[in-house]
Amino acid sequence: MNITIPVTTDERWPDEGRKAFAWVEERRRNAPGLDSLLRWAHGLGASRIDIKTGHPVTIKVHGVIRYATCKATDSLALADIVGHVYASDGMAMLGVGHILDTAYSVALDRKVNLRFRINLSPISVKRGSGVHIVMRPIPARPASLDQQMVEQEIRDTNRLKSGMILFGGATGSGKTTLQFGLAIEKLMDPTVYCDMATGEEPIEFLLDDLRPPSGSRISQTEIRPPTLTFPTFTRSLTRREMSDGIITECRDGETMNAAINIAMMGGILGTTLHADSVSLMIQRAIALCPPSERDNLVSALAQALRFCINQRLVPRKGGGRVAIREFLTFDRDLRRKLTRTEPTDWPDVVANAVEAQGQSFGRAIRKLLDADLITEDTALAEERRDA
């Protein structure tokens, strides 16, 4: 549950209303107010900044929402911000119903840039149409697997030679951080050679300056609909002879179809699904298979699956957040069992397998509680969530 804390004068963004800090002075060139807000929010450890027509700006710090400004943001300011972070036609695209994703950088000092993932959505307000901007910080590098306290079973997926790995969780649960933490670990392993390609919207962790010791490579492509889409990118992997593919979001039938076929052709394909548990991820994957090809694709999915991970972030004792993970290895016996089972029964089969041979959220919670990383209240709240 999110809690919103009212703003006080001492806690607000200090440059609000100052003449030298207009939201945007010149689109695509200079936005002193926006950049100042983002630097200030970064200094507080904000994981999210919300700017919405007719409302004060809010930020989210360690799961707690607080007001950052006293005054509401008007439509002219929103139009300037959209034009600055996206393009001059951004407002026109929002006006006809497009939802836009992009990334934005602001200099913290001469050597360090802050990067943010931005979602721009059209909304309805009392005076007609409005805009909701959500900005989430992107670290220069994901935390290491040790820092993320990633279990060995998950790390072992880097040794897989073929098949599909599914990452699941809510928005902001750290799926991408985990996925690219694993990717960096694989790329920097001197005993491994891989040729990795990613399709991302937008690119979060730009790894172009990574220098793997074994000659492994990563090529990152930013998805830009309607010209370049996830299905188009996924299909292109078959012509590039990549050993590893990463699709940062599998959101439609076309992408799922292409992803399953890539995984069946001998490479590793990792992608993410928005679902709240491993069993629900399987249900979601089945639902994404186009009806006209569902029978064949579901059978192929059963043969392609190798590992599923679902992650949540919970309050950490002493401040911050820590991950709890549910996961399951799809070994040969489990894959064969799925091929002999009606797809409608797969979620139950998978839920039972998680309890018997994987790690459930309940087990993950108990491990963190035993390690004194979460409180009894947090453990109880999470256990009730899955009751």
From TrEMBL:
Coiled coil: none annotated. GO terms for molecular function: ATP hydrolysis activity. Pfam families: T2SSE. InterPro entries: P-loop_NTPase (IPR027417), T2SS/T4SS_dom (IPR001482), T4SS_GSP_E_ATPase (IPR050921). Residues 106-315 form the Bacterial type II secretion system protein E domain. Gene3D superfamilies: 3.30.450.90, P-loop containing nucleotide triphosphate hydrolases (3.40.50.300). Belongs to the GSP E family. This is Secretion protein. It comes from Komagataeibacter melaceti.
